[in-house]
Amino acid sequence: MLLSGCGSLADGVDHDASRKASLAPPEIHVTPCSTVELVNFPSDAAGAARAALDAACAVRRSQAFAAGAAARDWLPGCSILPLPNRRWVSGASVRDAMADAGARFQLVYENPGAVASTSVGAQRMRIRPERFEGWLSGDPERRAALVNTLVHETTHLISEPGRPGRFRYTDRGHGSWWCPDRDLVSYGLGDLAARTWRAMASEG
């Protein structure tokens, strides 16, 4: 009797092999913002990823997004303790950093244990499958959520100047009373991107 595990189930079918056979081969998708290698995507989800990447790029290149990013100061991250002297960065610096962010990266279709996870050193972004299923559903709110996630994770592709592999913007401290998500670069710009996308979609 075959035991469950390692892709083999009691029915004798190697389901991992079947799943892999349905995956599209890695492909390169180019937008005006980025060259993206799509990894481990089923064919339908790859189509969703291409459309969402195009939408996120259009948002990032819009005047509304640039103006919103530059309109206020942001927190690049916070201490895990409520320290009184938080470090703020100018909106103009964030806007400029986002202009060239993620010039080339991998987008991986997998569950990283959270909605998404990004490595600045490897320039790799992993997003859970449900986000792409949401895009395929056609639900505008679920599409906005994927645009939000893509732009949020793009902030994590930006490294400290002269220090590749070190995040310039982090989620550290998020959700705490001294570090509200609305003030963090990553969460704030993700939300801004979603609002901008909704406005652009409503205009047709």
List its salient traits.
globular; two-stranded antiparallel sheet; single chain; 7 helices; alpha/beta; disordered N terminus; 204 residues; five-stranded mixed beta sheet
Task: Furnish the topology, listing elements before pairings.
Blueprint: H1 15-21, E1 27-30, E2 35-39, H2 43-60, H3 63-70, H4 91-99, E3 104-109, E4 116-119, E5 124-127, H5 129-137, H6 140-155, E6 159-160, E7 163-167, H7 185-202
Parallel strand pairs: 2-3, 3-5
Antiparallel strand pairs: 1-2, 4-5, 6-7
Helix pairs in contact: 2-5, 2-6, 2-7, 3-4, 3-7, 5-6, 6-7
How is this structure best described in words?
- With 204 residues, the protein is α/β, with parallel strands linked by helices.
- Helix 3 packs antiparallel against helix 4 and helix 5 runs antiparallel to helix 6.
- The protein contains seven helices and seven strands.
- A five-stranded mixed β-sheet has the order 1-2-3-5-4. The chain has a two-stranded antiparallel ribbon with strand order 6-7.
- It is globular.
- 42% of the residues lie in helices and 15% in strands.
Tell the overall outline. Answer: globular
Radius of gyration: 19 Å
Mean pLDDT: 89
SSE string, helices as H and strands as E: HEEHHHEEEHHEEH
Strand order of the largest sheet: 1-2-3-5-4
**How many strands?**
7
**Percent of residues in beta strands:** 5-15%
